[in-house]
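Model: Ready when you are.
Researcher: Fold this.
Model:
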Amino acid sequence: MKITVDFEECLKDSPRFRATIEEVEGDVCELESKLDKLVKLCIGMIDAGKAYNAANKQFVNGIRELAQQSTKDEVIESSLTKFAESLQEMINYHTILFDQAQRSIKTQLQTFVKDDLRKFKEAKKQFDKVSEEKEAALIKNAQAPRNKQHEVEEATNILTATRKCFRHIVLDYVLQINVLQSKRRSEILKSMLSFMYAHLTFFHQGYDLFSELQPLMKQLGGQLDQLVVDAAKEKRDMEQKHSTIQQKDFSNDDTKLEYNVDADNGIAMEGYLFKRASNAFKTWNRRWFSIQNNQLVYQKKFKDNPTVVVEDLRLCTVKHCEDIERRFCFEVVSPTKSCMMQADSEKLRQAWIKAVQNSIATAFRDKGDDGEKLDRKSSTSTGSLDSGGEPKERSLKGESALQKVLAIPGNSCCCDCGQPDPRWASINLGITLCIQCSGIHRSLGVHFSKVRSLTLDTWEPELLKLMCELGNRVINQIYEARREELGARKPQSGDPRHEVEAYIKAKYVDRRFIRRPSDEELRTKVVSLSKQEKRLSSSSEHLPPRAPPPTPKLRPGSNVSGQSVKSADSGIQNSADGSREMLAATPSNNSLTDADAAEPPPMPMPATLPPPSPCKEMAFYEPKEYSPGLQLFWASCARSLPDMAEALAHGAEVNWVNTEDEKRTPLIMAVQGGSLVTCEFLLQNAANVNQQDAQGRGPLHHATMLGHTGQVCLFLKRGANQNAADIDEKTPLAMAVEAANADIVTLLRLAKMNEEMREAEGPYSQSGDETYQDIFQDFTHMASNDPEKLNRYQQYEPQRP
């Protein structure tokens, strides 16, 4: 606040003047305190900035060192070098910003405090002193007696001189006050404006710098997507090779070495042998031997040059050595020397002796072709790793999932703002989103939207099919049905975030743009869905029977067969060997196909297996009340995901219970409909996987009764309680045994065994057995992508009117 003092008022030395002076002095004292504090804070900020710059320089140097270490990868080296240069420029800009802060804030304000405020303090001291002198002169003049003329004259002269001095000092003091009050505004504003312009320059330079860098960053972003896909593919390849090698029988490693004269790199045979030294101590050393180019050589380390034992195998012979203390020894004798070697077993010794003999014979037969094989590239010791075929595609990640989802009409742009090329999705809504809208969807909570990346996350087959069943066009027809009617503007790409957020909340949370159906429209919809369910259920009843499939293939070492099903009601072995044998079973051509693909014709029931219990008949009848929950109920059975999404949008409870139909839920009806994707959609929208009907049967019970192997696998993965019993005290396992469904018996037993193994490993165990994970992935893959392979025990169709 600017306080000025009137010059006329100061000559009067009135109480108003004194009050003004007191107010000014307090204000200047507070100003000095605030300026001192600001200068100290500025000094602290500058010191912290210098420390930040120093640490940032070290970080940039680390990036440069990483780039130098990656010289073999041109993309990483060039990208990191460019990033390091840009970050170094930003450090330089920071340094300029802190220098400007020091000049504009620290130096300029310190000068103002030291010069102008010091002058004010000096003027205040003189004013206080002359004020006291004037007060004393007034008192002395008032006390002078009238009868003492000399004292009166003296007091009068002193008072006159003091008043004259006071007027001079007080005018100077008032001038200093007014000048200070005027100057403080310009000094403070000039200092701060200079500092703000320094910030403007800093951010403008940073913007220009990163604008130039943006094309490179976009290019790298595109390459990164492909790199993620390539990395995932390489990982799957490595896992497949690892699995292939792990499944091999290594109990007889001695027989794995074989002589191969046509090896690509000219190495006919290689492996470890003990070699007896030629020194006086006759020590034995383990070395890596190989037969290559008609020579016997060995080396201690990979980088060592091979030491030649025999120059030309045509001039030597090989024989057993039984006259020394060590076992499995043999000797290679040449005209000039002999070499004693020891294998790890008798079979390996025979293999090496045979290899040397074959090399000798080959050398004599092809003595002119010794150098032809030098440039070949792979050896027999590693070549077998490449056999075994391509790994099976289990889950999709990166470009594959992105391409499949974006191929759906309407999915090439964000569902909410229309930005092209979205990279995110809401899996419970089945829509694609840009990065800004995905962040807003996350803020809504998972009970409204579950967000997943289309390029970085792994996509299960059933979840990918769910995305392909819905899409932006279908969902917007539901959630934006009345948008134009209400005059609501749909946000565009680039609109402020708060506008987009308000629209998304109105769309999905408040559901403001949904068209509520009338009672008659709802009734028509429900009746139509019930008729659609009947047509779907009857479409497979008149197809010719299929021939029985071959016996299921098992993993190596497995003893699970059809006989295990007959004895499925027996107790599970607790031994580790028994557990591993059961876990080794591989799903093959088994059980009822998922209705998401074309339903295969029913198979005749094997004569040796007991028939399963028939399902409850599903008949449509006039309900007491039509509701969105009833629409969801019949849409789940009719496998109509758009109608299910519409029912949920209209407020249907995902766990709605039909009290007029034995308390069945939409999830149980989805099991009856036979669609794996329908079940997945309900589970993604928080359906209870363990909710039971009036018979005490949950979704797992019904999937087991119907032989829907893919659904059984899905429910077990989602935490279904396989120990739950219905009113007849039957668990899903008991039903599967009774129906002689080998696949579902295997799945249920594997899940139970995996649970027991995790409990045995402790409360912090999460992963369970790897073989269990692999088998469930196999079933998941087949249920979604190769449902015809799950076609073994389709014994009957549920009776429907």
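Researcher: Now this one.
Model:
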Amino acid sequence: MDLIDDPAPGGNLPEYSVSEVSGAVKRTLEDAFGRIRVRGEVGRVVRARSGHLYFDVKDDRNVLACTTWRGQVEGLSVIPEEGMEVVVTGRMTAYGGQSKYNLNAEQVTVAGVGALMAMFEKRKAALEKEGLFAAERKKVLPYLPEVIGVVTSPTGAVIRDILHRLRDRFPRKVLVWPVAVQGPSCAGEVARAIAGFNALAPGGALPRPDLLIVARGGGSIEDLWGFNEEVVARAAAASAIPLISAVGHETDTTLLDFVADRRAPTPTAAAEIAVPVRLELLAGVENFGARSVRAVEQGLQARRQRLRDLARGLGRPQALVEPARHRLDGLEGRLPAALRAVVSARRVRLGEAAGALRPSVVSGRAMEARRRLMREAARLGPALARGVAAQRRDFAKCEMRLRPERLQAMLGQERRALDGLCDRLARVAVAEGRTRRERLGSVDRLLETLSYRATLARGYAVVRGDGAVVTRAAEARQSKLLEIEFADGRMSPGAGSRQRSRSAEEPPEQGSLF
């Protein structure tokens, strides 16, 4: 219903309900403005638990409240930050519940290159303060990686340039993770690609890269802005695989360039940094092989010359062997006489020994040995008897100690001691159970005293929304089902209670907006 002025001065003014006035204001506001673009500086920003985004856009005199619903937040190319100069596109609407109007922000873009550069410097300073640009945390690139992971667009000229350069220099296995290299989804896809390559297990069905290249062709700062997002910089800093940044041309700079382990001016240069030239390596190997052969030949020649020099300092072999040969000839002439003398001496000793071995002498010695053996045998019998007697006495002593009556007496004594211990244990168990019951009773009484049910008995109530306890009016308005618990039971508000449900796009009351 449209509002009209009184047609006649002094006449009766028409009466409108509050809802009619609020509805007319909302329709007028939405019809007059519709979809608009607003430029200003972002004030405070609040991300509600429900997922909605609330923020202010202001200039030097006024403030415009903006709301982005949870389903619209994912489509924003730029998440507003306090102090950022932005251009907000959306629809004007009004909320009669609080007599407020706001802008339903559907799209947020940064206002101009200057604002982007200011945001870039701000993020750069924050990340540098955290130490993400420090030289000591940068990893060394592998000299000749087996597998190279490339994060880029699969349809652009960048991937073709990289593959062509790798094929010319040193062919390697290449894994391409396709991503969007500009637009609102660029930052998230690049960050997930870096994390995905790092999540591959070494030696798995899909090989884990030894080196990563994040590449994109040149463009404006708006086109390259996805590589200035904080999520990309942190993903590159957390990468365990060495990473080369090859975004844009020589003059383009992104936050990824500062965090990466190596920056390449172009994607083609990144391929040149990643692998050496195969033909140069082969030429170097051949050069080293030739130098090794020459070194071995020169070493052998030097040792031959040294051997010849040393040989000239030695005497003739015949001169060295001649003295030993003369001594050998002299010993050979003395050997027959020495052998004859030794044989004669041994024959004399054998004759003397044969004379001492007469039969009477051998018989006498045998009789002496027999008498000595008989004496030892006569002494052995009594010794054995004494040993047996001693063993029998020890056995009798043990038998005396092991009588049944003694064992039964010891068993009865131990049984009485065990019964006494059982009685003591039973008394201790009863006393301990009594103590534990008393302690449990006191704790139960304390629990009843501290329980919220005692508070309910004093006239209070507990409000639950969708099964969870709510403590604020905004949470109660967002709940689909309310339940109130009193001291004597629970109830749900009846259909007759005055409740008004609002649509999902209607902003909450002032207390829940920020």
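Researcher: Key takeaway?
Model: Residues 495-514 have pLDDT under 50 and may be disordered.
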